[in-house]
What we know:
Elements: H1 11-19, E1 25-28, E2 31-34, H2 40-57, E3 61-64, E4 69-72, E5 77-79, E6 83-87, E7 92-93, E8 96-100, E9 105-109, H3 115-119, H4 121-128, E10 134-138, E11 144-151, E12 154-161, E13 165-168, E14 173-176, H5 177-181
Parallel strand pairs: 4-8, 9-10
Antiparallel strand pairs: 1-2, 1-5, 3-6, 4-5, 6-9, 7-8, 10-11, 11-12, 13-14
Amino acid sequence: MNAAHKYHYSYSEYLSALEGSEVKLEYADGVIYAMAGGTPAHGALGAAATGILRQLLSGHCTVFSSDVKIRSDAQNRSVFPDGSVVCGSFQRSPSDAQAVTNPKLVVEVTSKSTEEYDRGSKLALYQSLQSVRAVLLVSHREPRVTLVLRSGETWTTAEFRSGDTVAIDDPRVQFTVDELYGDITLDPA
Length: 189
């Protein structure tokens, strides 16, 4: 057998594997990827981000933790962001009743092993979803938030650091970088 041989899994095989898995699995058009467990800092940043969003959007939108899958049926991909927001009723994938297809805002906390993926193909996936208006990329290295924002059919990117305020119009969210990072001790670089 060729060591470079890749197996192609159907989506139903992925769902079966996910059901029996102790780790999160993401799916990209036939390929299943195991996601490494996060560090304490990664978990704290994800919880802080979803906590802030829940506080700011309570009564207006639903904030989901990293346990909720986002699905693009058009790209045949399913991923687990560190947080997501749906305003109004959430839509489920016809191929996966446990996957949401219409997030408005997505949060990814980077890590040493996922930063390139989070800022690359995973970000591109979120940008392909018509419902997504903003993506927050929260750095694991330093107090820094990258906001990727949809404006019509184009995307803009802005960086925010300690002392800065992140503001999004849709959904209406405003918080400081210092509020997000609080007293969290970041992982060594």
